[in-house]
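help with this.
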Amino acid sequence: MKNALFLILVYLLTLLICGCISFELSKEEYCNKTWRWDLDCALNETLSEKEVSKVSELALKLKGRDCIESSWNVLKWVEENIEYDSQKAEFPTPIIILKGRDVMIQNSERSYQTPLETVKLGKGICGDYAILTSALLINLDCKPYILRFEFNNEETGHLATAILLDQYYILDQNLPPMDLGSYYKKWAVDQIEITKVHIYDRGVLVGEISGDEMLEFDYKFSDSDLKVIENRIKEMLTHRLIEDPKIPAGYFEALIIKITFPNYVEFYTKAFSEKIAENIAEEILESIEKSDKKWRAFYIELKVNSGDLIVGVHLGR
């Protein structure tokens, strides 16, 4: 018996010396234990076919004519139905500690959620928003990317979803979608400088871009863009009212409604021009309905002021 035990110990020692026995975790084992806290593992797990399929019914309700309309619908739904979890955001960044094959997680409260978990909870932080948005887009055959942003003099970064059309457009919690340049300037308004962007296809890093390079993709708003918005708004309003630039002449009552759309010019993207105009028209119609009067005619005036789009709606009855 002693000889047998001795031979077994010699055999095991030989395997250890030659490297045939490893006390390190494989990538699969590591991710099984850490995907709630490790970004690469989380993206592979939460955007797996199994997890993505769990929000397929919701995604189908948001399907548009193309990926432009579908991605707008997805972002609008997320904005209206998912609340930012400020309490979770206050938790410190988790730390993964490996000891041989054992894994310890410090600050485990701040973890990644699956898409369905975020829908059921109705709240999350940036990573949860990005994962849910991406899962919905995958179900709609619109390929998403996860973008990880680094900031100057900031330890904490940020995650958002992007869709690649003629360029990357970022879908980050609220409408409207933005091109890279607009998104850079959005953070700059709060004096936060994006220094680097890491682009992921699920858990695989597929590209990087600097903050300065983002500005090369900034779309410059022009008078022709203003005309496109104006024409689309008129088109939608004429389904309900008659366009008449003579208001108030010929009407016994008139009203002017002014609505300001902050930063809409600064964040305007030509690819989403139709959806932007429709969104403005819908807000105008809501304002008209709140007046509790049956207006018969309208005309509109659009102007730009310091990046804001200001719409004046003249109503007559």
